[in-house]
Amino acid sequence: MPHLLSATDMPVPAMLRRIRALDERLFPPTAQPLPISPRPSEMRSLVLLFYEPSTRTRAAFEQAAIMLELHPLVILTESASIQKGETLADTVRTLCAQGVAGIVIRHPVAGAAHAAARLSTVPILNAGDGAHEHPTQAMLDLYTLWVHFGMPDPNTRWLAGRKVAIVGDIAHSRVARSNLILLSQAGAEVWLCGPPTLLPPAPLPPARLTTCLQEALQDADAVMALRLQRERMEQGLLPSLNAYRRDYQIDARRLARAKPDCVVMHPGPLNRGIELSDEVADGAHSVILKQVRFGLATRCACLEYALGIG
Amino acid sequence: MSEREEVVVMDAEDMRRAITRIAHEILERNKGARDLVVIGIQRRGVPVARRLALALSQIEGTGIPCGSIDITPFRDDIRPRPTTLTRSQSEVPFDINGKRVILVDEVIQTGRTVRAAMDAIMHIGRPACIQLAVLIDRGHRELPIRPDYVGKNLPTSRAEFVLVELMELEGRDRVVLRKPREAPAKLP
C-alpha cells in the first residue's frame, strides 16, 4: 500500500505526465471539463484530517476527491473529538475501522503523517507535517517548472544547469524541504536564502545557503518565495516585518539580477507587500495562480497513485 | 573626476574564507556557540554580521541570533548630541543580558564607531562580554580599542580610502584600497 509521506515517495516522471493529462481534462481550452474518473466507484470517503488551518491545500484535495468520485469528509480539529482529547493514533484507527478510502493529514508536528501511516490500514497522504515535509506542494511546484521549461523528458536530469532560489523562512518551511528533494533530484542547483536566524542551523546538502538575497537571485531561473509567519517576530528571530521587507523582499529591482525569463513562485498564502512586492506578485514573471491551478491536477494524481485508482 | 589608482586587496573568495576563519576563531575562543549573539554595526557591518552568524550556525549546528545596531544617537561628532531627538534604528529582537556579543563592522580605523556601538549596546542591556570582529583593520586608532578577530590587517596611510563592497549593497564582494588623488608632496 503506497503511502505518500515524503517527496522521496513520488514516482516523479510518471506523476508529471499524469498531472499533465489530468490538467488538460480539468482545464480544457473550450467546453466543459471532462470527467476524469475512469469508473464510477461506490462513493467511498476520503478523509481530510486537518489539525492546522488551510485554504488551498484543503480545497484542492476536496475538489480532487470529488473528481475521482470519492466523498471528501473534512474533519477540522476544532469541531471533532480531538477537542475531547482523542489522540492522533485513535483518530486514525477509528477512521480505518469505518472503511474510508484514504486519509489526508495536515498536522503541526513533524512526523505526524509517518506516525499515522504506521497504524493505518488505508493509504495516508501527507498534506504538511510541521516543519518537515509537504510533498504534494513540492510536486505541483516541480510540475509548474516542468511546464515552464517546455516539458522536457522527465526521466533525465532536466533541471541540470538551472538555478532555483528559495527565499524566506527556510528553517521552519516544510515546502522548502520537500522542494529541495525534488529539485535536486531533477538536477537543479538549489540556493536557500534568508536572514541567518531563519536558515537551517546545519548544512542541507546539496543546497547552497546564503544570507545575501542578491547572491541567491543572481542568474536564477526560478525563485520561490516562502510565506513569512508572524510568530517569528515574537520568537525574536526577526526584528520586524519592515526589516524583512527591506532586506529580503523580492521586488522588480532585485529580480533584475535573475535571468530575464525567471519565474516567481509562492506557495501561498501571500503576505501582500512582504515576501514579494505587488508588481512582482502580479507581474509577468509570477506563476502563482498557475501553481494554484496545477494544485488540483497534482492532488488528483497523488490520490490516484496512493489509492491505486485510475 | 580623475581616475584614482585602485588595488583590490580582498576578492569574494578571500572574503568568504576570512569570515569562515573568524567564525572558527570565535568558536575556539568562546568554547562553542553557547550564549553567542552577533550584532552588526549599520550599515556595512550588517551583511558581514549575517554571513558570520550563518557561518557560526553551520559549524555548530545551532541557531545564532543576529541583530544590527544604529550608532547615530551615540556618535561623538554630531553636536549637539541628538540622543533624544534621533530614534535609534537598532534591530536587536533578542535579550543580550548575560550574552557574549560579537560586534561586527567592516572596517576599523579610529575606533570611534566601535566606541559608539558599545554605548548603544550597553544602552539596551548588560552583556557578559563584547568581542569585536572586523573584516579590515586599517590602523590609525584614536581610542584604546583593539579588534579580537581581524579578516585582514591592511597598513594604510590616512590619505588612502578603504572601500568594502558587498554583494548586498554594491552587487559584488571585494575590498579596494584607493590611493589619494594626488600623491602627497615628498619631503626633500
For the largest sheet of chain A, list the strands in their spatial order: 7-6-5-8-9
On the 0 to 100 scale, the average pLDDT of chain B is: 91
What is the tally of helical segments of chain A? Answer: 12
Beta-strand residue percentage of chain B: 25-35%
Provide a descriptive summary of the structure in words.
The complex is a heterodimer of chains A (310) and B (188). Chain A is 37% helix and 14% strand. The model of chain A has no long low-confidence stretch (mean pLDDT 92). In chain A, helix 1 (12-26) packs across helix 5 (135-148) and helix 1 packs across helix 12. Chain A has 310 residues and is an alpha/beta fold. Chain A is globular. Chain A has a 5-stranded parallel beta sheet with strand order 7-6-5-8-9. In chain A, strands 2-1-3-4 form a 4-stranded parallel beta sheet, sandwiched between helices. Chain B is built from 4 helices and 8 strands; from the N terminus they run βαβαββαβββαβ. In chain B, strand 4 (100-108), helix 3 and strand 5 form a beta-alpha-beta unit. In chain B, helix 1 crosses helix 2. The longest helix of chain B has 18 residues, at 12-29. The A-B interface holds A 171, 195-197, 199, 201-203, 209-215, 233, 236-240, 243, 247, 257 and B 38, 47, 50-51, 53-54, 57-58, 60-68, 91-95, 166-168, 171.
